[in-house]
């Protein structure tokens, strides 16, 4: 028996969207994973660092997968519900969580860390990353690439030609180099997403708030109804995420 549109909307609207764990989507949406294994590589690098900083850590979910941490380990986060989750998850592992608004400057001294990391940062302040890295230190991150999930975003907002130009790897390489960082062999991936019901859409747009800024169920109810009908008639809604793996060293 299929679930009604109204019930699916209620499920998506009532779901807890704090933290950066997408387990609620199990059975409702899938996304291919990049081939490089960011969490594993992150864990390896943390095991050999002396002082690390994870920027925009979310609820600390990815960072907490590491098997060990350096003697000094810090993470920043801006959203209060995520700060609480990250603190509960990471403090027992010896990682200090610092509330930070994701605006420069980072609240740390120059050359404080030999490893700075981030997974899917919303903003990237290259000058600040370079400033807090030790000479020879490394920034290692997985970034969201250009036009990621734009099939879904443009379903709600219409064509976004200017926004499609953002987050290009070559632009990020140029910005990193201008800040005094040296890029080491960036990798890119385009990954298939399948969204199986409108509850998953509501959950995603409530959680990833920059996809459709100002999203509310009430404000987009007719477009949600259209998407529900499309999924019911044609099957899962297909979108594609883009990712790139960045390693940059302070010269």
UniProtKB/TrEMBL annotation:
Superkingdom in the source lineage: Bacteria
CDD domains: AdoMet_MTases
Keyword Transferase in annotation: yes
Molecular function via GO: methyltransferase activity
Gene Ontology process terms (BP): methylation
Domain Methyltransferase type: 53-140
InterPro entries: 23S_rRNA_MeTrnsfrase_RlmA (IPR052939), Methyltransf_11 (IPR013216), SAM-dependent_MTases_sf (IPR029063)
Pfam families from the UniProt entry: Methyltransf_11
Alphabetized UniProt keyword annotations: Methyltransferase, Transferase
Protein name: Methyltransferase domain-containing protein
Organism name: Brevibacterium ammoniilyticum
């Amino acid at each position: 028996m299929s679930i009604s549109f109204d019930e699916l909307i209620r499920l998506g609207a009532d779901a807890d969207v704090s933290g950066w764990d997408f387990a609620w989507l199990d059975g409702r949406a899938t996304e291919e994973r990049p081939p490089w294994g960011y969490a594993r590589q992150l864990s390896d690098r943390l095991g050999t660092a002396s002082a690390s900083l994870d920027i925009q850590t979310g609820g600390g979910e990815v960072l907490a997968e590491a098997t060990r941490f350096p003697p000094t380990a810090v993470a920043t986060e801006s959203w209060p519900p995520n700060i609480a989750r990250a603190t509960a998850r990471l403090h027992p592992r010896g990682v200090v969580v610092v509330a930070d608004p994701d605006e420069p400057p980072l609240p740390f001294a120059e050359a404080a860390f030999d490893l700075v990391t981030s997974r899917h940062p919303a903003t990237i302040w290259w000058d600040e990353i370079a400033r807090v890295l030790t000479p020879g230190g490394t920034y290692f991150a997985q970034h969201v690439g250009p036009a990621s999930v734009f099939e879904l975003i443009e379903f709600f907002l219409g064509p976004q030609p200017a926004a499609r130009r953002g987050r290009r790897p070559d632009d990020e390489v140029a910005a990193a180099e201008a800040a005094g960082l040296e890029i080491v062999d960036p990798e890119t991936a385009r990954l298939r997403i399948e969204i199986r019901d409108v509850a998953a859409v509501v959950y995603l747009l409530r959680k990833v708030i920059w996809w459709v800024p100002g999203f509310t169920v009430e404000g987009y109810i007719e477009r949600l109804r259209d998407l529900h009908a499309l999924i019911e008639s044609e099957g899962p809604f297909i979108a594609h995420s883009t990712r790139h793996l960045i390693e940059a060293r302070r010269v």
